[in-house]
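Predict the holo structure. Ligand: zinc ion.
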Amino acid sequence: MLVKSVFKALDLLQVPRILEFILHLLTRVSRLTADELEAAGLVLGPDAVRYSAVRIAEGRLLRLVFKINGDRAITLFHTINLPAKGHHSRGNLDLVVHEMVHVYQFEKIGSVYIWEALRAQKTGGYRYEGWEGLEEKRRNGQLFSGFNREQQGQIAQDYYDDVLTPDLPADSPQRLAFQPFIDDLRAGVL
Ligand SMILES: [Zn+2]
């Protein structure tokens, strides 16, 4: 509760905007490519996020950051920070989808998502027991908002990789298991 209030105050004071401005001076930023926009739109919806405000940051200060953290992508507010090379670099559209969920979380609940995502990394982690797990959880009444902030990103990423990329048929059990949660996501109920 206290944590939420602190982040709320930081948001009201425009701290994310200021930090983002500084970070952009120390990195190399660019807008989303057509492919990235399309991938994010297919999962989250074409108007879900303020995509025009999203920037991908690479290089410069981030080279040091990624050396320290082992190339893990970091999304801060509207900026998706990616290593310039390797598995977590820009060409991996599924990763961009995952990180875009964090941008969406920021738009919907404010910068407290950072706290919640860090807590998720330390506790529940990213796993949700696959599509079978999704099927069972939905049967028990779970909503997308019942997952932690990293599982939410992972579900969107896996939906892109395992359902959309192979274009599974509409009646495949995998697609049916993901669908209600993707519908929640697209409705912005995070
Ligand atoms: Zn994440």
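DSSP finds nine helices and four strands in the chain. The longest strand covers residues 55-58.
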